[in-house]
Design a protein that fits this description.
This protein is of the alpha+beta class. The chain is built from ten helices and four strands, in the order βαβαβαβααααααα. The chain has a four-stranded mixed sheet. α7 packs across α9. The structure holds glutathione sulfonic acid. Pfam families: GST_C_2 (PF13410), GST_N_2 (PF13409). Belongs to the GST superfamily.
C-alpha cells in the first residue's frame, strides 16, 4: 500500500496522523499545503475540504482512495496495519479503547476552539463574546486533560497509545499557536507529560510550524 498524506505545517490534526504513521514505521509521502489557499488539493479528496487526508494511491475506487477526519484516519491506520506486524497504538481493553476515543473528543474539541479563536482574531471587528466562549472550551478541555493525566506517563493502559498522540498534539499546538496560554504554569504535571512526549522521535520530527495563508479566508 502506497500512502500519501495531505498535511499542513501547523495542523494538530495532521500531526496526529504523522505521529501514528511514524510510531508504526509506515512509510508515506508527505504533501504539505495551506488548505485555505485556492491551490489546495483537499476538495479533490475530501467533500469537507479539510486536511489531513490520507490517500491510498493504489485503491481500486475513489471511495476507498481517501481517508479523512483525523480520529477516523487513526482508526483506519490501526485497522489496516494491525499487530503483530505493526506496533499497536490501541489500548488493550475495550474500556480503555473507548476512553482513548473520549480523550480525542476533548483534544479535538480544544483544537477546534483554538482554530475558531484564531480566525475570529483575523476579523475586522472580532467578537469578544465569541472569542471568550472558545477560550472557555480550551480552558475546560485542558482542565479535564490535566485531571486525566495526573502524574502518569501515559494516559491509558500504562503504554503509548492514540490517546497520548492526541493529547501530545494539542499541547504541542498550544505551545506554538497560543504561546501566551498559561497551561504549563497552571498544570505542571501536564507540562511534564507534554515534555516527555515531545522527546519522542515521532514528535521531534513533526513539531508544528506556523504557515503563511495567501488567500482571504474570513
Ligand atoms: N475535525 C477535522 C479538523 C481538520 C481541520 O480543521 N483542518 C484544517 C487545517 S488545520 O486547522 O488542521 O491546520 C482545515 O483543513 N481547514 C480548512 C477548512 O476548514 O476549510 C479533523 O480532525 O481532521
Amino acid at each position: 500500500m502506497v500512502l500519501k498524506l495531505i498535511s499542513a505545517t501547523p495542523s494538530p490534526y495532521a500531526r496526529k496522523v504523522r505521529i501514528a504513521l511514524a510510531e508504526k514505521s509506515i512509510p508515506f509521502e508527505l504533501v504539505t499545503e495551506v488548505p485555505w489557499d485556492r491551490t489546495t488539493q483537499t476538495p479533490q479528496y475530501n467533500p469537507l475540504e479539510k486536511l489531513p487526508v490520507l490517500i491510498d494511491t493504489e485503491a481500486q475506487t475513489d471511495e476507498d482512495r481517501s481517508v479523512y477526519e483525523s480520529h477516523f484516519i487513526l482508526d483506519w491506520v490501526e485497522h489496516k496495519f494491525p499487530p503483530p506486524e505493526y506496533v499497536s497504538l490501541t489500548p488493550d481493553t475495550k474500556g480503555d479503547e473507548l476512553f482513548a476515543k473520549k480523550v480525542q473528543v476533548i483534544t479535538d474539541g480544544i483544537c477546534d476552539a483554538c482554530v475558531l479563536m484564531f480566525f475570529e482574531k483575523q476579523r475586522s471587528s472580532p467578537s469578544e463574546e465569541w472569542a471568550s466562549r472558545q477560550r472557555r472550551k480550551v480552558d475546560g478541555g485542558l482542565k479535564k486533560l490535566a485531571e486525566w493525566v495526573g502524574d502518569q506517563d501515559f494516559l491509558v493502559g500504562g503504554r503509548f497509545t492514540t490517546a497520548d498522540i492526541a493529547a501530545g498534539s494539542v499541547l504541542g499546538y498550544l505551545r506554538v499557536r497560543f504561546a501566551e496560554h498559561p497551561w504549563q504554569d497552571l498544570y505542571p504535571s501536564l507540562k511534564r507529560y507534554s515534555d516527555q512526549l515531545e522527546a519522542r522521535t515521532s514528535f521531534k520530527d513533526t513539531v508544528p510550524v506556523p504557515q503563511t495563508i495567501s488567500d482571504k479566508i474570513v
